[in-house]
Amino acid sequence: MAHSNTVLYQMLQFIPRYEFNRIVNAHNGDKGVRKLTCFGLLVCHLYAQLTRQVSLRDLTTTIRAKLGRLYYLGIRNFSRSTVAEANEKRSYKIFEGLFYLLYSRCREKSPPSKFRFRHKLYTLDSSTVDLCLSLFRWAKFRKRKGAVKIHTLLDHRGHLPCCLIVTDGKTHDITAARRLRFEPDSILIIDRGYIDYCWLHSVHLQDAWFVTRLKSNASYWVKKRHKVKRGSGITSNQTIRIKGTKASYIPIDLRRVRFVDKETGRAYVFLTNIFHLSASEIAEIYKERWQIELFFKWIKQHLKIKSFFGTSRNAVLLQIYICLCAYLLLAYLKFLSKSAFDMYELKKRLEVNILEKMPLWEILRPSPKKPKTAPITWTQLCLAGFDNMLNY
Prior knowledge:
The protein is an alpha+beta fold.
């Protein structure tokens, strides 16, 4: 029997509809709505994310041409103003709740970390998206420029975003970091922009660990020197204490590790409160911070997060959360199917088949290779010709 469901329909079956409706009801999302429900708005935005629609006009025009295949997903005939009004009035907190719901489901299927230690590994960083200040007046950044800053906590088990804070461009990274709480016995990787000794001490008091880079102008005294292994790249391993006017902000022993990259010859000085791991492991942990840079690069290149369908704060936040929901949905499909494709290949295969009526697993798994046939030799050709002559 022929398959009757589109690829998009099958993908949306992995979103727990009952729990999504519960989030919608908690925020009165569908109260008084006649044309486009919250789930219908989610379908429109996911379609835009996966097919890279340029504008709201492109999105509505494309959906109208395919209404027959989107009817059973709650999409009826509507206008561009209907979607624009929904972006303004549907609370972004509905899709924020969906984001955390999808993350919890993804983490259950995500592959384990490459490190042997039991600690959960996270990286905290932010990325800035430039905006036009005349259109996005609430997103102040500079005198004639607007921007939003996406503060993200990345879970290294599967490289999934697990926490998100969106602010205007003027908000400093450490201001957003103070709003977060971390799991006990987890390791947090941060850049030097987050160095605030009072905040680092609060992370320590939460029974969490941190790894960062020491500022060049930091004032400290060496309490103890530890032996280092030759040839490992570690040139210094010390127990230190911060001194000077900021000594009272972090009254605990810290560890200073200096590492020299053999390939580039560049030296890195790390600051951490971890003493039970080796100095080489500290360097390897900080090296994992690059994964969040790759994450930001991927979503900016392959999803719609640099231009928006609305100008209000709610419309921007709504689109950002749905963008990351699309990323989590792709990651969930990859983990569940154990696909050999990377995220880019998987996304492109879904993009070109998004409204096709075919089994989803045919897209997630590579097509089997054709068996190699033995080349025909000259002797076989001569014998075939001789047989034809006899038959004639």
